[in-house]
């Protein structure tokens, strides 16, 4: 295994984790809701009158914030995805199905649920992680 030390950025990762934690805590404190992306997006599929605006604002913020940061001088990372459209669509569908079966995603369970010491979120997060490890191992070491 080769480590790319130029890509090893523990301080920026720590800073990002702290910001995500603060944002999730503020969202819970001010709105009384969990900042779980799959639940927020899922709520847009069957919108109610009072839920639609904040859900659109939340998702829009996720999309627009990096664009605004790029205009202020922050350098965004270059993301290179080495997969075709079929693999991306399949992965997206599997993640969507998994979040429905798990009643949430990594942001809802991993960030918000674990910080609230939820046993259900601990099991869900462990399941997500083990499935991810197994998938990467299978694709990188068994299929190739």
Question: Could you name the key traits of this structure?
Answer:
mainly alpha; 144 residues; 71% helix
- What is the element string, with H for helices and E for strands? HHHHHH
Q: Which overall shape is indicated by the principal axes computed on the Cα atoms?
A: globular
Distance between the termini: 16 Å
β-strand percent reads: under 5%
Low-confidence blocks of residues: none
The helix-and-strand class reads: mainly alpha
Number-wise, the strands total 0
| Helix share bin | over 70%
Number of discrete helical segments: 6
Largest sheet composition = none
Radius of gyration: 17 Å
Description:
The chain has 144 residues and is mainly α. It is built from 6 helices and no strands. It has helices at residues 10-31, 37-45, 52-71, 85-101, 106-115, 119-142. Helix 2 crosses helix 3 and helix 5 crosses helix 6. The radius of gyration is 17 Å and the shape is globular.
Short description:
The chain is mainly α and 144 residues long.
Topology:
Layout lengths: L9 H22 L5 H9 L6 H20 L13 H17 L4 H10 L3 H24 L2
